[in-house]
Amino acid sequence: MSAPVAAHPVTDALLPVYRRAPMELVRGEGVELIDADGKRYLDFTSGIAVNALGYGDPQLQAVMKRAAEGLIHVSNLFRTAPGEQLADKLVASSFADKVFFANSGAEANEGAFKFARRWARNVGGPAKHEIFSLRGAFHGRLFGTVAATDRPQYRMPFRPLAGGISILERDLDDLDISLNSETTVALILEPIQGEGGVRVFEPEFVRAVRQMTQERRIALIFDEIQCGLGRTGHLYAYERLGVTPDIMTLAKPIAAGLPMGAILATDEIASAMQPGEHGTTFGGGPFVSTVALHVFDRLSDPQLLAHVRELGTWFGEQLHGIAARTNRVRAIRGAGLMWGVDVVEPAGGIIARAREAGLLIVSAGEHTLRMLPPLVSTREDLARGLATLEGVLAAG
After folding, report:
1. pTM for this structure?
2. Which CATH number belongs to the domain containing residue 126 in this structure?
């Protein structure tokens, strides 16, 4: 164990919207987090898919120190190079022609809704205004995005929600009935639903959706906030589907924990937006963009992506073995280093027992464990975590 440090007293000053774990985390090394008592935890959460490069990465620390010696912020009234360079890389590596930087994933999705509606007003007039998401979706908790998020507990206290945003079933017949060329602006989906149970959409389903939206002049938005930027073993999750969207949103790992989101769009969508119709004070600032440039280069490295694909295949096989040996697992879903495990008891109890055993995992529903290890994890790291998980499940 590492030497303990003085823990800060628990405060009641924070808004109590999170049920935080009891320990106080003070530092991290590699793929482990360390609490104030010096106890180490193997991290299978990555800060909810944010810390793809793990903790204490010397290259990342050096970039942050160098960035802090330059400009931190000047606003988007002035040009700075890092954000422009990052936009160029995102465009060159994707379907997109234009990029807008925000401060979070929820902000990116809110902006995507605005961009889609602005484009739709040009091509279809005011009647074309409806935005749809899919059952199980999580797109954020801001006022527009919570209307597209399929969580009653997040939605009910804030009704009436933003108008013209509804949730459809994950069913092609339902989509065929509901997606109307005269009134529908956009359909947003996560290629892998994260909070909704790590549900992986099959390529055939998404290709049919893409054809439907193209024929009806409906924008297709891919929310890759959790599943994008290397998490599946592809730089973008849409690459495994054989289709491209009109808009894509990114966030979580893009700046290694610094606040950043991005909206990528085709020229057709982007050209509808006029000066003054959207904005951000902090988005794409020089400090955060300098860090994001480094992160992008690391996460787009073909060797890293191959590493994630290889480990992902092995990880899934190991999970199926654990399921067979423990008889405590109902279903397994995932790709790359993004996995969901449906369990026979409430997930919260397993998560608590795993934490006591030195393994951090999160839930994706009442009976689903979600595992999001850092992308730099080794097979030995993952094997150690899986052994802990098996022991915890077997003891349930």
Report:
1. 0.96
2. 3.40.640.10
